[in-house]
Design brief:
The structure is a homodimer. By secondary structure, chain A is an alpha+beta fold. In chain A, about 35% of the residues lie in helices and about 20% in strands. In chain A, the strands form six sheets. In chain A, strands 1-2-6-3-7-18 form a six-stranded mixed beta sheet, with helices on both faces. In chain A, strands 12-14-10-15 form a four-stranded antiparallel beta sheet. In chain A, strand 1 and strand 2 form a beta hairpin. The longest helix of chain A is centred in the first third of the chain and has 22 residues.
Chain lengths: ~450, ~450
């Protein structure tokens, strides 16, 4: 690999210039801004890297960019998944520099999409290009699937993959998105949670009315309190009938892996400004809960008047927003209908309940896989340190699309620093992380061939 | 009285002109707009009516307007309480005519303060003036106390009355504020609820954080649900320890009076758009609950994100606003401290709890009083119909200031129609109600002398 790494070393300036152009062309899926240009720009990067069959493929939403490097059908094939869309810049005032004019400060590349996900997918393209340039040929086949809707919940990905199984046929799916562990150590991600987002609304009288009638008229805010208290017990246990029925407990290895993830409780408590965690309280079960515990989170609640001064009213309606996070084998549609039934049975048949946006299916793969081993070795080569194994993460993602629809192991290898500020202002990736990501991507090709 | 009533009949045009000028000069206590002018204008009305010692007396807030007509210290003295301040016009777009340019349409006077409270206090001044003009002398003494802070909760009234007991010494306090029963029948009000308004806030992490951490980090919105559910049982019973301890049940006469108030359940259900009332459900106990049942109303709740689209967050803080309505002998300060203790004991010692605005002490007087009888007869004379006796109302008011501090019976005789729209747009009083109010005010003087 030494030869490849020094090849990469010599091309740093060129990589940066190409990445900066990619960041400049934006591609904001939530507004649709520059999406077509971003897809075309990515095609150019892929073509120049030597990838073949580079194409923009339609979906029911924003298109997918596909490319491949096929050496021999009999060799193992890796699918690299990523996304070319970015979050909106949101509050420009809060950025130290223009989000779409990338710049380097203090060893970091700042710009929208720098970490999420442009530098990370770009590292895979450049790692493979470097490998092929130095070795003359690839010992594996590589396919690229870069979608344009990750930041809006990947609504078209599942059907696209299902309809293109032949094109996407592979032995393993790798993706680089997200960041390292807080400690600065790289990680491997072997699972994600499922999730859906729901809104519940209760109506009371058809108009706001004076609070003095409280002994006589129904108050939808009190009913919402009762409704929510019937769903969620203090401490976090969910009281929806059947909520835990399908939960498949983690294997002994998965649980052991979660326990091995270092937790700096004092630093976490300090950064969140809290005295205790949920669960055991001291944070010792932080990752076990984060990864294995399904949850219903109350993201927002609003009703009546809470503005300046005061108004003595019975609110007309009250709305609550729930984020439901799931673990294997809980199914979003099943849990949603159990929630509906729960509301009906608890006296809230009149509550409106609707899902907002798409749903993610939870997914977790076995730790005991040659593809996990290849990824570990690649990280060790590229980063010079063993990654921490995450049997899952707290967030949701489309892993199940690959794990189930394509039927292949699906492994995340984040290349960004933990303080990447993705989705926020001053998004950035450490230059060092970017170089190491390219190196690890090249190493991954070699390790996959050796596996 | 016939002679007096025809005297009033002949002066209708002049009364209207004088009332319209009074409405034009506004006097909005919540903003302070034109308060001094309104007080001075009222002094002019009182002086022209023949009242003596007309003066603007300072309080810790907006001043009080005082005047008197003393015939003989040995005669009974009635104190007429009212307020010269008005609500803000709020949304001008929603008014059919300028709120401070009164006009008559369809037999109603439209304008801010037309019903609440300018026409009503004005009726008392003109009724007494008419009585004195026709009879040559008054058979009772009359004192006027018109405050400028009723619409902001009468924060200075209690201390003003306490410091001016000698000036305000009287045998009975009458006030005309509020409206008739829905049926159009006039009413007498013999009690009010107490109330205070409180805000509770719970903090979570020091910043909004991603919902995926829900299994690990405290969510102040869930804690607020638990907190509120610990205060209020489904159906309305309050679970604060000791909340009901001081409640003095109504007398048999008071309960019987509440039962006699007609309830048009079908019309109420239609107007509120509800299928059932609280309590028995059919509305048969509507007034008993409204008058005798203390309550904690959830006026508003807000936390996290409920705007367009969605954001997967754990809220940073959540706020709830409570209106607590009390019955004799519950004390606002005592109930407030019981609520604080409840929060501390239920695991919410970290919740901030503060009272917003002033508090009203509940007050209820005996039905069996010569002053009630005088008021009934005056209404019968002025309106041509017996009033419905309300042993209390759902709303709070400063009655206790007179009942306890001055130690006199305190009786409300509303002169406005039920659909007066006070505090809303198109506030109005029926011309017919205005004339009858003046007549009843004159009759009240005669009946008090006869009592």
């Amino acid at each position: 690999m030494k030869e490849i790494f020094s090849f990469i070393e010599r091309r740093k300036e060129a990589y940066l210039a190409e990445l900066f152009d990619f960041i400049r062309c934006a591609g904001v899926s939530c507004s649709g801004e520059n999406m077509r240009q971003a897809a075309q720009h990515l095609c150019g990067i892929l073509r120049r890297s030597g990838a073949k069959r580079v194409q923009i493929l339609p979906t029911s939403g924003f298109p997918v960019v596909y490319a491949e490097c096929i050496t021999d059908e009999r060799l193992p094939t890796m699918l690299i998944y990523g996304h070319y869309d970015v979050q909106s810049a949101s509050d420009l005032e809060k950025w130290a520099s223009n989000p779409f004019s990338p710049e380097i400060r203090d060893g970091r590349i700042y710009g929208r999409g720098a970490a999420d996900n442009k530098a990370q997918l770009f590292a895979h393209i450049k790692g493979r290009e470097a490998y092929a340039a130095v070795k003359g040929n690839l010992p594996v086949n590589v396919k690229y699937l870069f979608e344009g809707e990750e930041e809006i919940g990947s609504p078209s990905l599942r059907s696209f993959v299902a309809e293109n199984c032949e094109l996407l046929r592979c032995d393993v799916c790798y993706y680089s998105d997200g960041g390292y562990h807080d400690s600065g150590l790289p990680i491997l991600i072997l699972g994600v949670k499922g999730s859906f987002y729901a809104e519940i609304t209760l109506q009371g009288c058809k108009q706001e009315t004076h609070a003095m009638r409280a002994p006589c008229l129904p108050n939808p805010a009190w009913r919402m309190v009762d409704l929510l208290a019937s769903v969620h017990m203090p401490g976090g246990r969910i009281a929806i009938k059947g909520f835990y029925d399908a939960v498949r407990p983690p294997s002994a290895e998965q649980r052991a892996a979660a326990r091995k993830i270092p937790v700096n409780s004092a630093a976490l408590k300090e950064s969140y400004g809290i005295a205790r965690f949920l669960g055991k309280g001291d944070g010792s079960d932080y990752y076990e809960r984060l990864i294995f515990e399904p949850a219903v989170n109350l993201c927002g609640i609003q009703g009546g008047y809470t503005g300046p001064g005061f108004r003595n009213i019975i609110p007309r309606s009250v709305t609550a927003r729930l984020d439901v996070s799931l673990v294997p084998k809980q199914e979003p549609a099943d849990i949603f209908s159990k929630l509906r039934r729960h509301l009906d049975e608890k006296g809230f048949a009149d509550a409106s309940l609707q899902m907002i946006g798409g749903a993610f299916i939870p997914a977790r793969m076995s730790l005991d896989s040659a593809y996990v081993k290849a990824a570990r070795q690649a990280v060790l080569d590229g980063f010079g340190v063993e990654p921490i194994i995450f049997p899952g993460v707290g967030g949701a993602g489309p892993n199940d699309v690959f794990l189930t629809t394509l039927g292949v192991p699906t492994i995340g290898i984040p290349y960004a620093n933990a303080d990447q500020n993705n989705h926020s202002s001053d998004e950035n990736i450490l230059l060092d992380s970017f170089w190491k990501g390219i190196a690890a991507s090249a190493a991954l090709i070699g390790k996959l061939a050796e596996r």
